[in-house]
Write a structure and sequence with these properties.
The protein has 300 residues and is an alpha/beta fold. It has 9 helices and 9 strands. It folds into 2 domains: 8-172, P-loop containing nucleotide triphosphate hydrolases (Rossmann fold); 190-295, GMP Synthetase, Chain A, domain 3 (2-Layer Sandwich). The chain is globular, with a radius of gyration of 20 Å. The structure holds guanosine-5'-diphosphate (GDP), magnesium ion and potassium ion. Guanosine-5'-diphosphate is lined by residues 16, 18-24, 37-39, 44, 125-126, 128-129, 155-157.
């Protein structure tokens, strides 16, 4: 509950190393699957907004790409994107994984946090996986490196203490308007969600054989006028012909399964029948090609 009866609203960035639970937290608070979850790191590459609305105010979450030491042009771009987001928001939630403990990537993030003015909460996630005695030393370790405005232990998965987190966030936000209608949880284009769903199914079905170098481009997404059907033409880009072979599978069996699973989930999500036309193409070393980055929508 807010401390006064002003309506508050603002933008909150979720940052932290891959797999700490950023998407899980946002999905828990917003209550709908909008960011794609996976146990493989870095499946969320674009900003996704989740909107939480109550009588006290409105919180608009940005699920930014993780800040980590860049190893390629794509990596540099992702770090820059994350950094830019931090300067534009009202509050930053820095998530850590209580079970994983302190990691070298966290120091890099905190160094970067010192460069922005925005207040920062340390959100210690996955407390369901540790003994309470382990928490204080861990928190001290982080506090020694950065003067966090709040420290909030939670379990995003089980929802422990997330209501407190919401209250603390709300009280930090400035007085402001309700930016989005109360029933809106995301303003992300359906195209992006559809692309991410296909990527999710590829990662699900190929495990380690296909690295994160796959990108999905939705080339066409059209609603048929006379029928309740949406035509989607999508291309999965891989870096090597061998990966293309794996992805297609024996007599096209793997690609067929990717398409089937993605289509079923799209139909549930969008509430319409989907006709999915799925292709696999090879683009060598697309991670480091500026033009491709632009083509895939990672550049303005
Ligand atoms: P992200 O990369 O930071 O967005 O992390 P995800 O939200 O994709 O979560 C990574 C993994 O951690 C998933 O398998 C989640 O189910 C799991 N996870 C997230 N939050 C919690 C939590 O509070 N407790 C436990 N035990 N697992 C969690
Ligand atoms: Mg995520
Ligand atoms: K700061």
């Amino acid at each position: 509950m807010a401390m006064d009866n002003k309506y508050r609203s603002g933008f909150v960035a979720l940052i932290g190393r891959p797999n700490v639970g950023k998407s899980t937290l946002m999905n828990h608070i917003v209550g709908q699957k909008i960011a794609i979850m996976s146990d493989k790191p870095q499946t969320t590459r674009n900003k996704i907004r989740g909107v939480y609305t109550s009588d006290d105010g409105q919180i608009i979450f940005l699920d930014t790409p993780g800040i980590h030491k860049p190893h390629s042009k794509l990596g540099e771009f992702l770090v820059k994107t994350a950094q830019d987001a931090l300067d534009e928001v009202d509050l930053v939630l820095f998530l850590i994984d209580a079970a994983e403990g302190y990691g070298p990537g966290d120091r890099f993030i905190m160094e970067n946090l010192k460069k922005v003015q925005t207040p920062v909460f340390l959100v210690v996630n996955k407390i369901d996986q540790v003994h309470p005695d382990q928490l204080l030393p861990l928190i001290d370790r982080y506090r020694n490196e950065y003067p966090f405005n709040e420290v909030v232990p939670i379990s995003a998965l089980q929802g422990n203490n997330t209501a407190t987190l919401i209250d603390l966030i709300m009280n930090r936000l400035p007085e402001g308007p309700q930016y989005y209608p109360a029933d809106q949880v995301t303003d992300h284009p359906e195209r992006f969600i559809v692309g991410e769903l296909i990527r999710e199914k590829v990662l699900e079905l190929t495990r380690e054989e296909i690295p994160h170098s796959v990108a999905v481009v939705i080339e066409e997404m059209n609603e048929r006028e006379e029928k309740d059907i949406v035509d989607v033409r999508a291309v999965i880009y891989t870096e090597r012909p061998s990966q293309k072979g794996i992805l297609i599978g024996k007599k096209g069996s793997l690609l067929k399964e990717v398409g089937k699973r993605a289509r079923e989930e799209m139909e549930r999500l969008l509430g319409t029948r989907i006709f999915l036309d799925l292709w696999v193409k090879v683009k060598k070393d697309w991670r480091n090609e500026e033009m491709m980055l632009r083509h895939f929508g990672y550049r303005e």
